[in-house]
Amino acid sequence: MIGFAACECLIYNARSLKDKRAVLQRVLTRIRQRYNVSVAEIDHQEAWQRAKIGLVAIASSRRAAERELERALALLDSFPELERAATVFEWL
C-alpha cells in the first residue's frame, strides 16, 4: 500500500527564500531521520511564505502506511515556525 499526503504550509516569519529554505530544511531533515517516509517540497518553490510538502509511505497494509504518515504529520505540526493549512491524502 502506498500512502501520499500533500500539505499546504505557511511560514509566516520568512522574509526571503533563504529564510524559508532554512526552516524547510530543518523540518524535512527531522522527518526523514525519525520516520520511514519520503518527504520533499513539491510546489511553491519561489514563494517566500508558502510551501507544499509531499510525504510518501509504503507499507504492507494501509493502516501501517497511515500510521507512519500521521506520525510524520504530527512532527510537522510540532514546529512553531510552520503552520499546516490543508492536507490531502491519496492511496494507491
Which terms summarize this structure?
four-stranded antiparallel β-sheet; 2 helices; 4 strands; 92 residues; Alpha-Beta Plaits; DUF503; alpha+beta; TT1725-like_sf; DUF503 domain-containing protein
Description:
This is DUF503 domain-containing protein. The chain has 92 residues and is of the alpha+beta class. It has one domain: Alpha-Beta Plaits. It has 2 helices and 4 strands. The protein has helices at 17-34, 62-77, and strands at 2-10, 38-43, 50-58, 83-91. It has a 4-stranded antiparallel beta sheet with strand order 2-3-1-4. The N and C termini lie close together (6 Å). 25% of the residues are buried. The mean pLDDT is 96.
Q: Order of SSEs, N→C?
A: EHEEHE
Alpha-carbon distance between the two ends: 6 Å
State the helicity in percent bands: 25-40%
Shape: elongated
Number of domains: 1
Radius of gyration: 13 Å
Q: What is the count of β-strands?
A: 4
CATH superfamily: TT1725-like
Q: Uncertain runs with pLDDT below 50, 5 residues or more?
A: none
Read across the widest sheet, the strand sequence of neighbours is 2-3-1-4
Mean pLDDT: 96
Given helix and strand content, the structural type is alpha+beta
Described by strand count, sense and barrel closure, the largest sheet is: 4 strands, antiparallel
Q: Assess the beta-strand content as a share of residues.
A: 35-45%
Write down the CATH topology.
Alpha-Beta Plaits
